[in-house]
């Protein structure tokens, strides 16, 4: 699907604020993909659709996770995690996106997972550092991303885990596993 058509499809699903965020993720994902030699077209498409399900009712996302083969333990953690797998499912079903690399990048853009592909890392990080993001620590991660994607990713996960800890929120085990996987690989 071409960029303009994809943007039109996704715009209908999002608030204006979230659409602006999506444009920032798209722009950043293309820059990162170029930098690390990931597929730019796939990065563009995954970025455009990454938050497709962000505003779906919780009940709809819960139902998708229950019935479409996703890990059931997601339902025991923050509902913020659900739009990623639900989005991967809905983008295929409703927008006709079939590229499994793109769908996988959407699926894991919130939790991460051990053994992330280059494209998955690009989308995860672009989501975190796009120009519209202003939370504490984001500028440091932006600088790190220019040098080393894995180090930037580790920092972003550390920040997210700290943020959740401070808010007394549960942390999805796969987020820890993603962190462990990246840190161990960096040591090798
Ligand atoms: O959808 P976005 O806001 O663009 O970003 P996202 O899909 O990365 O969602 C991030 C939010 O999810 C962030 O505010 C933290 C929250 N969250 C809740 N539980 C977890 C979690 N993030 C991770 N990585 N792991 C969790 O267990
Ligand atoms: Fe998201
Ligand atoms: Fe996002």
From TrEMBL:
CDD domains referenced in this protein's UniProt entry, alphabetically: HDc
Reactions catalysed according to its record: P(1),P(4)-bis(5'-adenosyl) tetraphosphate + H2O = 2 ADP + 2 H(+)
Record SMART domains: HDc
EC category: hydrolase
Occurrences of domain HD (ranges): 18-132
Keywords attached to this entry: Hydrolase, Iron, Metal-binding, Nucleotide-binding
Record-listed E.C. numbers: 3.6.1.41
Matches recorded under Gene3D superfamilies: Hypothetical protein af1432
Record protein name field: bis(5'-nucleosyl)-tetraphosphatase (symmetrical)
Organism in which the protein naturally occurs: Bacillus salipaludis
